[in-house]
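Notebook entry, structure prediction.
Reason for the run: the old model in the group folder had no record of what sequence produced it. Starting over properly, with the input documented here first.
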Amino acid sequence: MTDTRALAAKSLADIALHGASLREAMDRHAQKLPDPRDRALLMALVSDGARWWPRFDAALDRLLERPLRSKEPAVHALLVLGLVQLEVLELADYAAVAATVEAVRALKRPQLAGLVNAVLRRWQRERVTHLAALGAKPETRHAHPRWLAEAIARDWPAQADAIMAADNREPPLMLRANRRRSDRDSLIERLRLDGQAAEPHAWLTDAVVLPHSTDVTRLPGFAEGLFAVQDGAAQIAADLADVRDGQRVLDACAAPGGKACHLLERANVALTALEFEPKRTERIRENLTRLHLQARVIVGDAGQPSAWWDGQAFDRILIDAPCSATGVLRRRPDVRLHRRADDISALAAQQRRILEALWPLLAPGGRLLYITCSLLRAENEAVVAPFLAMHADAHAVQFTLPAGQAAAEGWQILPGDGDLDGMYYAVLEKR
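New structure, fully documented this time:
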């Protein structure tokens, strides 16, 4: 029998020490667990391990005389998971320690079982001292890399602690009812009959909220395409786009296709879904097929439209720009381990390039949505404001939302605002 905690340690080491994404690690290891309950435990352990790695990885520097990261990466990751079980999951001390020591043996490192036991026992004895030391610095208090903790404090000084706390809370599971196949009330009724605590979102007309994550493929209606998984912050795009029947629509940087599908559910539009990475177009096609929707899916660089554009202007353009993903750390905890401070300027340059390239494709009177799942001003206001200053035919549409706040020429939802992911929107119209 495969030890789930040992598998979680290997997965976490792949993510934190070898650069794998959470999805890649789960694809690699989850198939070794036939029981769905074991796979759910694996996902919970790996997600929380990645989320809290910056905190408990630093704690191990205080607990170990010699680091294990390079020589024994899986055992190092297992120790992080042991501390996560004690402090975050709040397992009984004896159970957490015993299970972690047993996992060392499953990793075929029995000679390190005594060390693992000693480290966890030392943590228990010196817990108050270690927690005080970790709490003294924002990066270890909130388990964010130092550069990001500093960037958040610089851009959002009054909200910094609340943002980082929100990044570490379990997000609700949000679904989007497919208007082409059902209606939200019927979907909620069906989910409740299945025992799900489904509720309508307070102000997003297609959104359904479940309190906890689950295997959505096992929910009633998934196979029939009655719903898609999409956070409420992303669902706002369809409202702001205000698509009408007969319009030509471009969704640039479209994978995995959530926003494109939502637009197709709202109106009969001729939609082109553009994606730079060929492999990611398969995700778009899978979603279109399951939801019984049709679109033109093409591979291309949004910053070089001459290679794929047919010369006909679009009435609506969505630019879901490549970004730091710093607004979605609660759903993608591995991002905090992989993103670097010097990524931001490169991403901002890419965002400006795409915005400049696609603006000429917009028809007069048309609407362009600039979107990021970032909360850093360098990727949002600092991209949109200079663009508007340089283009006399570009006009920023003013709007408000029930969550978030105005941010220069757009609107910023910070992580946790209205229990949504962090996202920035700017709506530009061509005069």
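Summary: Residues 139 and 145 are 6 Å apart (CA to CA).
The old model has been moved to the deprecated folder.
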